[in-house]
Structure formats: C-alpha cells, structure tokens
Design goal:
Strand order of the largest sheet: 2-1-6-5
Helix content: under 10%
Order of helices and strands: EEHEEEE
Number of helices: 1
CATH superfamily: Phosphoribosyl-AMP cyclohydrolase
CATH topology: Ubiquitin-like (UB roll)
Largest sheet: 4 strands, mixed
CATH class: Alpha Beta
Strand content: 25-35%
Length: 112
C-alpha cells in the first residue's frame, strides 16, 4: 500500500497506535502526516507530528528512548496506522513503559 492511499483527517493527520513488537504491549498513540510517515520509512526511526509544538519529533531524539520501526500497517479503512517497534527504554513521557496505565473502573464511576 502507498502513503497516498491513506485517509488523513482535515488537519492532514492520521493516528498511529504503537505496539512493542516483542511482547505485544500497546505503548502509545501519536499522530503522523505524510512527511512523518516518509521520514519513518526512510530512517526506520519513529517520527511523529507534534500537534502542540507544530513540528516533527523523532521518538527518543533527546531522551534516548527510541523506537525502531519493525513494520507499519494501515487498518481496513486506511484511516489509522499500527506501528510495531523495538522500544528502547520507556515509551511514555511520564517515565512509564506504556502510556496506557490509567485503568477506568466502571464500579467506581459516578456516572454509571
């Protein structure tokens, strides 16, 4: 599949779920545009688009917690990506291995 077949949102972005290739843990979710996908494919280092800073960022460029691309696939609708990576260090800016550590407990949810 080519990048041109992907469905980007109105901001020219597509979400990417990042998964550890070795153990299968979901590490994080980020945003990419056509250029960041191309940079990732060329360098094999995960490169994202920062919506808050409005710039590209290579995961681990300053922290050393890099993500080396193993493979990247699009979902059936071609509007979301799954990147399998070899993660060095932690993935989350909080210092956690994965960004997904906040469990939602329905039993303690006041709205249920």
């Amino acid at each position: 599949m080519e990048i041109t077949g992907l469905k980007f949102n109105s901001d020219g972005l597509i979400p990417v779920v990042v998964q550890d290739d070795q153990v299968g843990d979901v590490l994080m979710m980020a945003w990419m545009n056509q250029e960041s996908i191309q940079r990732t494919l060329t360098t094999r280092r995960m490169t994202y688009w920062s919506r808050s800073r409005q710039c590209y960022w290579v995961k681990g460029e300053t922290s050393g917690h890099v993500q080396d691309l193993v493979e990247i696939k699009a979902d059936c609708d071609q509007d979301c990506l799954l990147a399998k990576v070899n993660q060095t260090g932690v993935a989350c800016h909080t210092g956690a291995r994965s960004c997904f550590f906040n469990e939602i407990d329905q039993a303690n949810d006041a709205t249920s």
